[in-house]
């Protein structure tokens, strides 16, 4: 008994396999079907395949506005001064801010009185804006927002809440 493995790709990324048993092949050949004509007549009676319509491409979608770039600078406890590390981050934003709007959002951690935290949130955003203006960013490109009070979450590292989020939103030019 001899077996042969045949394979053919259907273009679907799969491989169809078939085993042919050569011992059974002579029996199939010695007993042919009664008449091949009915099969041929059935094939001729089939309707012609439908005409293939040309594919019409849809018009290209307008390019989506790029997502704003978000950076963060961090502050020490009870301070709103921009330190040397934050100054380096802000300096990298200046070249990218020529045709962009910048939104600054000040944050403070949950500890302390709410009046002090509100002052810190606003003071950190204002200090960041003034530093950007000194570095050459036009004042009218900058918007300040104050974040709502932070929830008390002692399992979160507090230094992450003492920050200013900087969203650099590219403006499309006509």
What does this structure look like?
- By secondary structure, the chain is α+β, with helices and mostly antiparallel strands.
- It has a domain at 69-170: OmpA-like domain (60s Ribosomal Protein L30, Chain: A).
- 26% of the residues lie in helices and 23% in strands.
- It is built from four helices and six strands; from the N terminus they run E-E-H-H-E-H-E-H-E-E.
- Strands 3-6-4-5 form a four-stranded mixed sheet.
User: Which descriptor suits the 3D outline?
Assistant: elongated
Structural class: alpha+beta
* Fraction in helix: 25-40%
By CATH, the superfamily of the domain at 69-170 comes out as: OmpA-like domain
Give a quick account of the main beta sheet: strands, pairing sense, barrel closure.
Answer: 4 strands, mixed
Strand content: 15-25%
């Amino acid at each position: 008994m001899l077996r042969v493995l045949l394979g053919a790709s259907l273009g679907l990324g799969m491989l169809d396999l078939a085993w042919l048993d050569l011992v059974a092949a002579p029996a199939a050949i010695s007993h042919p079907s009664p008449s091949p004509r009915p099969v041929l007549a059935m094939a001729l009676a089939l309707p012609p395949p439908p005409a293939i319509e040309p594919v019409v491409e849809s018009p290209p979608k307008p390019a989506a506005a790029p997502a704003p770039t978000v950076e963060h600078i961090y502050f020490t406890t009870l301070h709103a001064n921009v330190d040397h590390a934050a100054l380096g981050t802000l300096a990298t934003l200046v070249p990218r801010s020529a045709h962009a709007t910048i939104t600054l959002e000040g944050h403070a951690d949950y500890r302390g009185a709410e009046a002090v935290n509100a002052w810190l949130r606003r003071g950190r955003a204002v200090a960041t804006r003034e530093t950007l203006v000194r570095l050459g960013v036009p004042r009218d490109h900058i918007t300040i927002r104050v974040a709502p009070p932070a929830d008390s979450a002692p399992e979160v590292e507090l230094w992450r809440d003492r920050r200013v989020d900087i969203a650099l939103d590219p403006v499309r030019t006509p």
